[in-house]
Amino acid sequence: MKKLFTLLVFSMLLLLVACSDSNSGTQKESEQNTDNTKQEATTESKEVNLYTSRHYDVDDELYKAFEQETGIKVNVIKGEPDELLERIKREGDATKADVFLTADVARLFRAKEDGLLQAVSSDTLTQQVPEKFQDADQMWYGLTKRARVIVYNKETVKPEELSTYEALTEDTWKGRVLIRSSENVYNQSLLASFIEIDGEEKAKEWANGLVANFARNPEGGDRDQAKAIAAGIGDVAIMNTYYYGQMLNSAEPEEVKVAERLGVFFPNQDTTGTHVNISGAGVIKASKNKDNAVKLLEYLTAPAAQAVFAEANYEYPVNPEASSSELLTSWGEFKEQDIPLSTLGDHNAKAVMIFNEVGWK
Q: What is the DSSP string of 330-344?
């Protein structure tokens, strides 16, 4: 069974994580006394408090592996991203939060703009996370990445009919396009990327053209768009790759059936590239355990942990030295948009304004 195989591979990868060389750029202070007593010379806490909006089992397993390797306890507080940010603001300097981890650059940008994060200087993070996937001021770093692609009904659409995001605004796709609400941050960042590449006017033209081709008013999440294709409501949808991977390997047979009827297409390969976003994290400005927080980020961006993310949750590694999963590899390499991801946060407000102007619900 797929699930059993994945669990087996996952267990093997966890062993790799536990045995990997944690080449941390923030090393412990060495103790200079030669006494046989094993008294610790540091008052630093052996814990790190993580506020995260991610809810995947793989994350929890990696935190446990980190604890086993370092002896640092990871206290996990989960919640919706905006709620967590408001909680950190409300708690102020008294907050227990050390790390904020969430999906989408726009949320990390918001945390930075609100003055909740601090700069982190780590040679290890700089080496493990490409410049494109980290904040210019070292306030946040990417942990995983996902592409926002076109999925299509293999019975009604041939892949050669697909080309770019822009082409989905053509008359041939009228009444055939599915996508979630404009309130969704993934769509806001997608439009923000178009603003960065082509300017506001062309971005607005695209959004307006896509609205004209909607198969229905936006509703539900990415998986719901895939299910709507299988139900014959539309023929193509824009969704994140990891959702599609999760459906292909779902414990629910119906989700697997839906996913198997679909194909995945990486748009704009001959032009500007496919839109890519991240899950990422930053160290809280009022952190009481900064060194431990940095160690956790270094651990999660190391090749072994990156491979676990890819295998168990179908997310692309940000670390170029990490191996990807068999499924992701089977989709082939693809050209990514060549823009600093921080610009997605810069243009978020403009993207929301455009969505409102064109009537994207």
A: HT---PBP-S-THHH
- Burial of 250 by CB count in 10 Å (0-12 exposed, 13-18 middle, 19+ buried)? middle
Identify the H or E element spanning 248. Answer: helix 241-248
Q: Map residue 172 onto helix, strand or coil.
A: helix
pLDDT over 80 (residue 247):
yes
Residue 268 has pLDDT above 60, yes or no: yes
Mean predicted lDDT score pLDDT of the chain:
90
Query: pLDDT (tens digit, 9 = 90+) per residue, 96-142?
Result: 999 999 999 999 999 999 999 999 999 999 999 999 999 999 999 99
Average pLDDT, integer, range 49-71: 96
Residue ranges and CATH numbers for the domains of the chain are: 47-144+278-322 (3.40.190.10), 146-275+335-358 (3.40.190.10)
d(Cα 64, Cα 116) in Å, to the nearest integer?
26
Residue 188, pLDDT > 80, answer yes
- Indicate the SS3 state at residue 141: strand
Other residues' Cβ atoms within 10 Å of the Cβ of residue 251: 9
- Residues 99 and 221: their CA atoms lie apart, in Å, by 27
pLDDT tens across 199-211, in order?
Answer: 999 999 999 999 9
262 vs 334: CA distance, rounded Å? 19
Give the residue among 104, 76, 321, 254 at the shortest CA–CA distance from 192: 104
Using only C-alpha atoms, what is the Rg of the chain? 21
Q: How far is CA 134 from the centre of its chain?
A: 13
The alpha carbon of residue 87 and the mean position of all alpha carbons in its chain are separated, in whole angstroms, by 22
Mean pLDDT for 266-283 is: 97
Q: Is 119 helix (H, G, I), strand (E, B) or coil?
A: coil
Element (DSSP H or E) covering residue 283:
strand 275-283
CA 24 to chain centre: 23
> What residues contact 188, with CB distance under 8 A and at least 6 apart?
106, 182, 348, 351, 352, 355
d(CA 103, CA 107): 7
Checking if the pLDDT of 251 tops 80, the result is: yes
